[in-house]
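Final report, closing paragraph on structural work. Over the funding period we assembled a curated collection of sequence-structure pairs, and we close with a single example.
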Amino acid sequence: LPDIPWNKNEHLPMWKLIVEISTKANYKVLFGKKNQHENTSGETKASVYKHIGAVILPECYKIDPTATGDHIKSKLELLTKIYKKHAAKLQMMGEGVHEDQDHDGGDSDEFCRFYIGANGPDANSSEEAKNLWDQIKNNFLFFPDLHQI
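Its predicted structure, as stored:
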């Protein structure tokens, strides 16, 4: 396959990928049902990756649908890994837990300093929460959109 220009047109292919993984049908297959009472679709992850590839990388899909699907899968796995790394910062615990320490969850007197919902900080969010959100957004442009999924 040719090089995939993920950053062209202000990251348009990446934004399209985020839109595609956000659709209810694709989300259900790739990440699981949000509601346990929903029926499964019967689709496989591989078929969804190919479908997404056909939508956002049609030139590549025409050359090799399977390789295009594999590329979508790899890109989504990378996005997910980066998202989780940044999301973990939003769950940092207070009082004595630092980024370079491991935490086993055993201390009952530790607490989460703040909560940032899917839409980001709001009027009630602390300055610390807002600053952390801004720092994450500056480091990972796609974080706010992925945080809403």
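Residues 9 and 15 are 10 Å apart (CA to CA). The mean pLDDT is 83. We thank the funder for supporting this effort.
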